[in-house]
Structures are given as structure tokens and as C-alpha cells.
Write a structure and sequence with these properties.
Strands 2-1-6 form a 3-stranded antiparallel sheet, with no helix packed on it. It has one domain (4-76). It contains no helices and 6 strands. Helices cover 0% and strands 49% of the residues. It is mainly beta.
């Protein structure tokens, strides 16, 4: 399985790119905003339907964002 490096909004005039933070380059002033990992996850809707999305977590394990999978471009390591 490939490791996700970053995701970029696909349908935006000014797309945001959210990237994994290198542990050696963590922000000294707001480290809670650094992203440790981006994972593909899914959520069940009804009996047979699922929504796939990408979620980003900081170094404390707190979810910082989530985007529907079809709305972003994914970049792998």
C-alpha cells in the first residue's frame, strides 16, 4: 500500500494543498496544526452505501480535516 504525501482540492480556483509535515520541520509556534498522516477512510450510509474520504491527523491523533475522495487529487510518496 502506498503512503499518501499530500492532497490538493480538485475543484477550486485557488486549491489548497495539505501535506504531511516532516518531523524535523515541525512548527514551533503552532505544532497542533502539523499533519502526521493522511488516511483513506470510509463512512457507512444506509445498508449498502459508503462514502470514501481522506482524513488528516496531527501528531496528537486529532483529526484536523476530511475531504470527500472524489473532490481531491492525491499525491503519494
Amino acid at each position: 500500500m502506498e503512503t499518501i504525501k499530500s492532497i490538493t482540492e480538485a475543484f477550486s480556483m485557488q486549491p489548497v494543498t495539505l501535506s504531511i509535515t516532516d518531523i524535523l520541520k515541525r512548527d514551533k509556534f503552532s505544532p497542533e496544526n502539523d499533519i502526521k498522516e493522511i488516511k483513506a477512510e470510509s463512512h457507512r450510509i444506509g445498508e449498502n452505501d459508503r462514502i470514501l474520504y481522506y482524513a488528516g491527523y496531527n501528531f496528537q491523533g486529532v483529526k484536523k480535516f476530511q475531504y470527500i475522495a472524489k473532490a481531491v487529487n492525491v499525491h503519494y510518496v
